[in-house]
Design a protein that fits this description.
The complex is a heterodimer.
Chain A (H helix, E strand, L loop, with lengths): L4 E2 L5 E2 L4 E4 L2 E4 L7 E7 L4 H17 L4 E7 L4 H11 L4 E4 L4 H5 L7 E5 L4 E7 L3 H16 L1
Parallel strand pairs in A: 5-6, 6-7
Antiparallel strand pairs in A: 1-9, 2-9, 3-4, 5-8, 8-9
Helix pairs in contact in A: 1-4
Chain B lengths: L1 H17 L10 H4 L10 H15 L16
Classes of the chains: A alpha+beta, B mainly alpha.
Chain lengths: ~150, ~70
């Protein structure tokens, strides 16, 4: 379950999205100029439980330098997602996409999947699954992206 | 008329062959692992059925959907 694999690391424009959040909407286009970590998750997904505390720490360390985290929830029903959020109370942006349209646009290969979007809107790196051992590599990539 | 029937037959065959080709997307797995998606939602009946299969065929498992998981494999 925790197998994590590199999917591709080519420069490609990230598909734009506009999704509801608990307090308004979030769109990728409005975050141009920032490094964005787009993470697809669901309440029933085991590795997501590990990735949320990690992402919270990441956000605390790098948000002053321009990192934005958008965690897109793909649950069909809102209640289990809300329970999950109540448990972890993430400091970053959480968006809801019950139809999975965004996941389709990003070609999400597994749950969770994360994408680092550069300041110019290109995808720097994508990652399927979550593994704490590999998390350091992702952090290094984010540091590099923030320097650009 | 014969041509029409031939085309209809061809269409039906194509539909039959491609009917099972839809892939389960990773984010749809929550629906698959719901109890109502199980072929036999009654756990008692399932264990009895499983016992019969095991006794008759010497094998068990493979009668259920694959649960949640991260979809990595």
């Amino acid at each position: 379950m925790l197998i994590a694999g590199l999917v591709w690391s080519e420069s490609k424009i990230a598909p734009s999205f506009e999704l509801p959040t608990p307090n308004g909407t979030v769109s990728l286009d409005s975050l141009r100029g920032k490094v964005v970590l787009v993470d697809f998750w669901a309440s029933w997904c085991g590795p997501c439980r590990q990735s949320f505390p990690w992402m919270s720490k990441l956000y605390e360390s790098y948000s002053p330098k321009g990192l934005v985290i958008v965690a897109i929830n793909l649950d069909k029903k809102r209640e289990p997602a809300n329970d999950f959020l109540a448990e972890f109370s993430p400091p970053f942006i959480v968006a809801f996409d019950p139809d999975g349209k965004t996941a389709e646009a990003f070609h999400v290969p597994a749950m969770p999947s994360s994408y680092i979007v550069n300041r110019d809107g290109t995808i720097l790196f994508s990652h399927a699954g979550f593994n704490l051992k590999k998390a350091g590599e992702v952090e290094n990539l984010i540091q590099e992206a923030l320097k650009q | 008329m014969k041509r029409v029937i031939q085309w209809l037959f061809l269409g039906a065959i194509t539909m039959l062959l491609t009917g099972c080709a839809s892939m389960v997307r990773p984010w749809d797995r929550d629906l698959l692992s719901e109890k109502k998606m199980s072929t036999n939602p009654n756990p008692w009946m399932r264990s009895i059925d499983d016992h019969i299969y095991f006794s008759k065929e010497g094998s068990t498992g493979g009668d259920d959907v694959g649960g949640g998981g991260c979809g990595c494999n």
